């Protein structure tokens, strides 16, 4: 297929994806919120409740991160750091991992991360949110809202290679071979 014919077909697929995304937003808007507990997390400043992570906002993104041992989670967090100020204009934002608060701070400093981090170690937060299965933590995003009477979860999704939350996958797709065995690393030096 010629370059131009291929571009026409690819643009048609992109229009189809845009249509599906519109349908997904409409479905998401009608979701029945799920009540959740006011979980407790550990930070260097002491315990903090899920409700406190909202600050003055009504919505909160919590990233389920596997911690410093996961290069993929580090890739996503590097990307979130770049758009943090945009996201925080609309909702509160925090990253939760099983790492101890000091380990989180040290790793965040080494990466230049600016977002708040909390440790869910010793709690059942990750498991109850569906991000600890078969003895291992899983990456994802949960969205919480403040409602009269408590906190609700209004959305969540897992993270994985080829997801829409890491721009790297889309760039690599333009190469025509996707990741082609490429895996993120902590450093490329």
Offer a concise description of the structure.
This protein is of the alpha+beta class.
Large-scale geometry? globular
Oligomer classification: single chain
Task: Give average pLDDT, whole number.
Answer: 96
SSE sequence, one letter per element? HEEEHEHEHEHEEEEH
* End-to-end gap: 38 Å
Text of the CATH class? Alpha Beta
Please summarize the sheet with the most strands.
Answer: 6 strands, mixed
- Strand numbers in spatial order across the main sheet: 1-10-9-4-5-6
Query: How many discrete structural domains?
Result: 1
CATH superfamily: Glutaredoxin
Uncertain segments of ≥5 residues (pLDDT<50)? none
Describe the structure.
- The chain is built from six helices and ten strands; from the N terminus they run H-E-E-E-H-E-H-E-H-E-H-E-E-E-E-H.
- The protein has 189 residues and is α+β, with helices and mostly antiparallel strands.
- A hairpin with a 2-residue loop joins strand 9 and strand 10 (150-158).
- It is globular and about 60 Å long.
- The N and C termini lie far apart (38 Å).
- The model has no long low-confidence stretch (mean pLDDT 96).
